Description:
It is a single chain. By secondary structure, the protein is mostly helical. It has 7 helices and no strands. It has helices spanning 7-11, 23-44, 48-70, 75-85, 89-97, 102-125, 129-152. Helix 2 (23-44) packs antiparallel against helix 6, helix 3 (48-70) packs antiparallel against helix 7 and helix 6 (102-125) packs antiparallel against helix 7. The protein is globular.
Amino acid sequence: MSQPESITEAFLPLVPDVPEADIPMLIAALERIAAGKYRGWAESSADPVERDGLAACEAREIEIAEFIESLYPDPQSTIDGLNARFPDLQARYDAVMDGRPRAEQLRIQSEGELGGADFMQQFAAANTGAVAARFTSLAACEEANSKFLAALLV
């Protein structure tokens, strides 16, 4: 198999194999993986403004994951089930990024954030009230991450 060109290409094929009720938790797992990537980029950045921006992106990814996890009565059980079913989540993400120049990784992640925003909007549409509003605000978090990464590429 060739190197996936995008985060979507790496992970979208998994979605049909996930119970519909657990798709948000799969996204939460991917948010945590992305948070780790942001942390790594921040730690390796010599520019304090860039480092702070990447740390803010990491925090937003964790915020998204934590909110989704809060919607499940037993989130750890769901996470364990997803990890058992898909033990290669981190490897799939790494396969997208490995060997690519940093700028290309940033571009790919920026595009992935827009995919995450789409999922948040879908989750908002599937819910009501405060939960729907929160998913809408989390879509804005994903978009903010995408914009920040895109600005680093200018």
